[in-house]
Structures are given as structure tokens and as C-alpha cells.
Design goal:
By secondary structure, this protein is α+β, with helices and mostly antiparallel strands. It has eleven helices and eight strands.
Length: 296
């Protein structure tokens, strides 16, 4: 890694319409007992470790050597080390620095736009959980380095190219962190087991609390990890399975609607018809007729 390599950028009104623009990108090596942050950044980006700073953009910082600490208004002080990333949020005071006796190497990229705002609004990224354990990853380093090259060259459309690289970084960060979390706690096998239990017992009165017990997890943790892994709360996932199974039975069997309702776990056929229409936007009978016409 070169000692310092950083670029601060401007964006046009047209660039802002793209939904995400990049303000800065760079890398730096901080050696043992070197002052931090180095006094080479614009005044809007400098800070002291005690007072921290507030940005009007997001920044995604990746540590590839060494260790240090990070803290923000929404997250208490924690250790970060090689293989960790942390996300800075606009409008929130934060501070971070390497351990003086060790130093660190870091990459960062700063960005803003409605695309990222929507991801935060929909809880893909949360101020309370800004640190991601992605591990040492060559692809992530390559993306940062390509972003630095793109920012330095500033060819036509460079802001759109940088936005694509940020989106790729965010996708990798989100996925690798969740994978590490699930693998570390053995949750992946437990969630897969829960999904099988749900699928094989749709006709029963399935209760998420009971399923959590069967996979040896506390219910609050089961509900949280299940949603992180599948995107659904446990009960919502069960409902989705019931609708999907009923669609298969409607399309490929002659079972009466009442029997299908019971088969997928509805005690009341009228309630089944209401639930089906709410999700599929048509009645079970109409869905069956449409299916038979399609294959006739």
C-alpha cells in the first residue's frame, strides 16, 4: 500500500439525479505512533479523537492491517481490527483511531444519495450496528483500488462508475457480515432446520415459539436471526409457504378448496380464501381457472 492516496470530488446536479454520488475515496498507511488523523485532509474532514466530527455524507471504512477503536453517538466504543469495516452516518458525531503502538492501514469511500438513504430507512444498515466483520477480502480491496483509479482519472461518467462500485461494496459488506454472523453462531444450520420443520408441517398449527424451541434457540434471538437470514419474520414466512403450497395444489390437483385450506393449515376455508386473495390478488377459484386455461 502506498503511504497516502486520496481524492476529494465534486458532483453536478445531473450526477445527483443518479441517486448516489461519491464525495471522496482513498487509502492511507498509519504507522506506529503516527499522529491521527494525518493533517492532509480538507478542514471539513479533519477531527480530533476527543471531539470527533460530524459529516454530511456516509463513509465506508475498511481496515486491512492493525487495530484501533471506533465510536459514535449510536454505538458505544468498540475495537476494530484488520478485516472489519465500519459505516459512518451523516449528521452523527463519531470518532475513530488506530492503536498508537500498532497503527493500521485503511481504505475509505464517502458517498450520499437517496439510494443509500432508502437502504437505511429500510434497516439494511443501522446506526446502532455500524461495524461489519467481513474478513480479509481481496475483492473488496480491488473495488476500493478501482474506485481510487476512477476518481483520479475522472473520465466521462466517472460519478456513475463510482456509484456502481459503492453499490457493489455495500452488497458485499452486507452479505459477508451476515454470513460471518450466521456461521459464527451456528445459526445457519438452525435456520435451515426451522425452514424444513415449517415446510413439512404446514397442515399443523405452527407456532414460531415452538419451532424456536425445536431448533434450540431462544425465541427473541430466533426471530431476529430468522428475519436476517430470510427477510421474513417467522410467522410471515409460514404464511408465505402456505400460500405457495396452496397455489401448487390449486394448479396441479383437483382437490376441493376446503381440503386445500386444511392441507395448508387453515381451519376456516373462508379465512383461507381471504388470506389467499390478499396476497395473490385473486380468489383461489379464479387462480385455479386461470391455471387450467394456461395449460389447456
Amino acid at each position: 500500500m502506498t503511504n497516502k492516496n486520496l481524492k476529494y470530488l465534486i458532483e453536478s446536479a445531473q450526477d445527483n439525479l443518479w441517486g448516489l454520488t461519491v464525495n471522496c475515496v482513498g487509502q492511507q498507511h498509519v504507522g506506529t505512533d503516527e499522529p491521527y488523523p494525518p493533517q492532509i485532509h480538507p478542514s471539513a474532514y479533519t477531527f480530533t479523537q476527543n471531539t470527533g466530527r460530524i459529516l454530511d455524507e456516509y463513509q465506508l471504512v475498511y481496515i486491512t492491517r492493525g487495530r484501533g477503536t471506533f465510536q459514535s453517538e449510536s454505538c458505544k466504543e468498540c475495537e476494530v481490527k484488520a478485516g472489519d469495516m465500519f459505516l459512518l452516518f451523516p449528521g452523527e458525531r463519531h470518532s475513530y483511531h488506530p492503536t498508537p503502538s500498532v497503527g493500521w492501514d485503511e481504505y475509505w469511500i464517502g458517498f450520499k444519495g437517496e439510494n443509500m438513504d432508502n437502504r437505511v430507512k429500510n434497516a439494511f444498515f443501522q446506526r446502532e450496528s455500524p461495524v461489519f466483520h467481513v474478513g480479509m477480502n481481496e475483492e473488496i480491496v480491488n473495488i476500493y483500488q478501482r474506485a481510487i483509479t476512477t476518481a483520479n482519472e475522472q473520465d466521462m461518467g466517472y460519478q456513475q462508475m463510482l456509484a456502481g462500485l459503492v453499490n457493489l461494496l455495500l452488497g458485499l459488506t452486507y452479505t459477508l457480515d451476515k454470513r460471518t454472523l450466521n456461521d459464527h453462531h451456528g445459526a445457519l444450520a438452525q435456520i435451515n432446520k426451522a425452514k424444513v420443520i415449517m415446510l413439512e408441517n404446514l397442515s399443523e398449527n405452527l407456532q414460531p415459539e415452538t419451532i424456536a424451541f425445536q431448533v434450540n434457540m431462544g425465541y427473541s434471538r430466533f426471530r431476529k436471526v430468522f428475519k436476517e437470514f430470510t427477510g421474513y419474520a417467522p410467522f410471515q414466512y409460514i404464511q408465505e409457504l402456505r400460500i405457495q403450497k396452496s397455489k401448487e395444489l390449486l394448479a396441479h390437483t383437483n382437490m376441493p378448496l376446503r381440503d386445500i385450506a386444511y392441507e395448508v393449515g387453515y381451519d376456516n376455508p373462508d379465512y383461507f380464501a381471504t388470506a389467499f386473495k390478499r396476497v395473490v390478488h385473486t380468489t383461489p377459484l379464479t387462480y385455479r381457472k386461470q391455471g387450467s386455461q394456461k395449460w389447456s
